[in-house]
Every structure is written in structure tokens, then in C-alpha cells.
Amino acid sequence: MERTSVYVISGFLGSGKTTVLVKMIQKFKEQGRKLGIILNELGDECVESHLFRGEKIYELLNGCICCSIQEDLRKTLDIFMTQNNTVDVLLIEGTGVADPVEIADTLLHPFYIDKFQLKSIISLVDASHYFEYQSIFSSTKEIRDLLRDQIISADYIILNKTDLITEKEKEKIHVKLKKIADSKAIITFASYGNIKFDTLVEKRDLAAKFPSENSYKKHHHISTLKIENIPNIQKIDLEKWLNGITNLIRAKGIVFDIENSSYTEIQFAANQLKVKEGLNTDYNKSVIILIGYKLNKAEIQKSFENRFIS
Ligand SMILES: Nc1nc2c(ncn2[C@@H]2O[C@H](COP(=O)(O)OP(=O)(O)OP(=O)(O)O)[C@@H](O)[C@H]2O)c(=O)[nH]1
């Protein structure tokens, strides 16, 4: 079954995310695509609902900077999954203070990886405030780091509001962005989010990889590996095996127990394995996702099979 294409739109407060989102909706509709939209609002009210009248909108309210973003998003993705095939393109607008990696990370979860395909992380940069936000005098470290993360994790960067700056400033920002961004990322200029839709939706590298792999890549050379068909394994054995993998940073997964129609959730971080057993689910697959620094995928897959299957 075709996975639902997901586009994440990130960018700092007021950079033009909603402006671009409205344009994307229009274009996708012209193509006859069935759209779902997730808005991640700060505060407890979506003040922009009127812009999306008639669309299938899901709001993640109270989407503050903390981890609740991921939980809310999971709940919303679950709703999409129960509405089979009603949506073939999902657009997610992050709050101006969200790190898109968190959204990508959620889409990487074993529950969702077979259903959703992260096509692009689009990041808007407000050209008119670029130097102000980058300045150590008029901005905070948190803001600078956040803007940096938004740029690093994107595969499509829109320098928006160029109508408010000079050609010279535009060039200067472009040079800076090229230094920060992933080498494969597309950097484009726009005012009022007017970009070439075709270049935005055309297939790029991100689709061929696991979501979020790209996002971490620039700085961390992170790779991911999906192991499927997991037999019943003792927790201690799995923990030992995971701890033996060179450069592994994180693992997460689910192991389905056919007899009890329940699953065990697996979370491995900081060399420790945590499991939650006996959870109810409609999901009936077993899969573990490994995330690490330049993982030797073939070797790990083989080691898993030797140890637990044959
Ligand atoms: N001058 C100028 N204004 C723009 C441009 N793009 C968007 N705006 C305006 O900037 C304001 C913010 O745009 P939005 O699209 O709402 O930005 P946003 O990133 O969704 O904002 P938040 O929801 O606060 O995060 C609106 O008043 C837009 O009309 C642009 O390229 N040039």
C-alpha cells in the first residue's frame, strides 16, 4: 500500500509557514490529492482556522516546546491511520519554536514508518530578521540554536520575505545558509512564499531514506536500520546484544505477541533497555529501529540473525 506523503513545514515565528502552507494546499488540491493538515499551535487556540476552511484539519493545541509535541502528534497520526486511505498527502506545520527533528523522529517510530513517508522538511527563514536573530546582542542562544536546527534538518530551505531586504543582504544570508545547511539541501528565495511548487514536491533524497536520517546527518553522520520479524527474545539477551553494537545510540521497537494479541514496546537509550509489556494494539508487526553513528548495517543484521534466529 502507498504510504501517505508527509511534508513538514518549519521555521521561526512569523517566517511565513502558514503563507506557504496555504499555497501548498491550493496546489495539491489542483492535482486532486486528498489532503490532511496538522497544525501545531502554540497556546490553546488555533487562530488561523479560517484560512483552512473545508480542509481536514487536526490541531495539536498546547504544542509547547516540551515533549508533549510528540505525544500529541502520535495521537493525531493514530487517528489518520484509522481513517484508511482518506488522506494521501499530510502537511504538518510546526510551531515557530518546534524543532522539526522531533516531528521526524515521531514519524520514524515503528508504528508509523510503514504508513507515512516523510518527503520533505521545509524550513522557512525570515530574511528580514535574519541578522537580528543571529546576533548575540539582540537574540538568545536558544533562539540561535533553534534556528540553526531548523536549517540543518531541512532538505528544502526557503529564504522568505526577500522583498524586505536588498540584493546584497540576500547574497550574504545565502552564503551563511549554505554553510549551515545540509550539502544536498535546496536553498530558494521567495517573497510571500511564492516558490516553484514543482521543485518543492519533486522527489529528493529524503524519501529514499528513513525519516530523520537526513536531519541528523550533517553533524552526526547518523544512520538507521530497521530489523523486522523479531522472535520472542528475553529482555536481558536483547539488552546485551544492543550494548554490543558499535556506535549504537538509540533503538526503539515493538514486538508483537500473537498468542496474547498484545505488544511489548522497546526503548533503548543510554545503554539501557526499557520494555513495556502487554500493551493493546491493532498493530501486528514486530520491528526494531536502530539509530547510530555510521552503523554497519549488514553486519548488524547478520549478527541479529545468528544470535536470535538461526
Ligand atoms: N513582507 C512580507 N511579508 C510576508 C511574507 N510572507 C509572509 N508575510 C507576512 O508575515 C506575517 C506572518 O506570516 P505567516 O505565514 O503567518 O507566518 P508563520 O510562520 O505561519 O507565523 P507563526 O504562526 O507566528 O509562526 C503575515 O502577516 C504574512 O502576510 C513576505 O515574503 N514578505
Output the keywords.
Hypothetical Protein Yjia, Chain: A,domain 2, CobW-likC_sf, chaperone, GTP-binding protein, 2 domains, five-stranded antiparallel beta sheet, binds guanosine-5'-triphosphate, 310 residues, alpha/beta, hydrolase, Rossmann fold, P-loop_NTPase, globular
Task: Characterize the structure shown.
It is built from ten helices and twelve strands. The protein folds into two domains: 4-218, Rossmann fold (3-Layer(aba) Sandwich), CATH 3.40.50.300; 221-309, CobW-like, C-terminal domain (Hypothetical Protein Yjia, Chain: A,domain 2, 2-Layer Sandwich). By secondary structure, it is α/β, with parallel strands linked by helices. The strands form two sheets. A seven-stranded parallel β-sheet has the order 3-2-4-1-5-6-7, sandwiched between helices. Strands 8-12-9-10-11 form a five-stranded antiparallel β-sheet. Bound molecules: guanosine-5'-triphosphate. Guanosine-5'-triphosphate binds at residues 11, 13-19, 96, 160-161, 163-164, 191-193. Residues 233-306 form the CobW C-terminal domain. Keywords: Chaperone, Hydrolase, Nucleotide-binding. It catalyses: GTP + H2O = GDP + phosphate + H(+).
Side by side, the strands of the main sheet go 3-2-4-1-5-6-7
Overall pLDDT confidence: 79
Structural class of the secondary elements? alpha/beta
Question: Which hetero ligands occur in this complex?
Answer: guanosine-5'-triphosphate
How many helix segments? 10
- How many extended strands? 12
Number of domains: 2
Shape: globular
Order of helices and strands: EHEEHEHEHHEHEHHEHEEEEH
The named CATH superfamily of the largest domain: P-loop containing nucleotide triphosphate hydrolases
Strand content: 25-35%
The end-to-end span amounts to 30 Å
Helix content: 25-40%
Under the CATH scheme, which class of the largest domain?
Alpha Beta
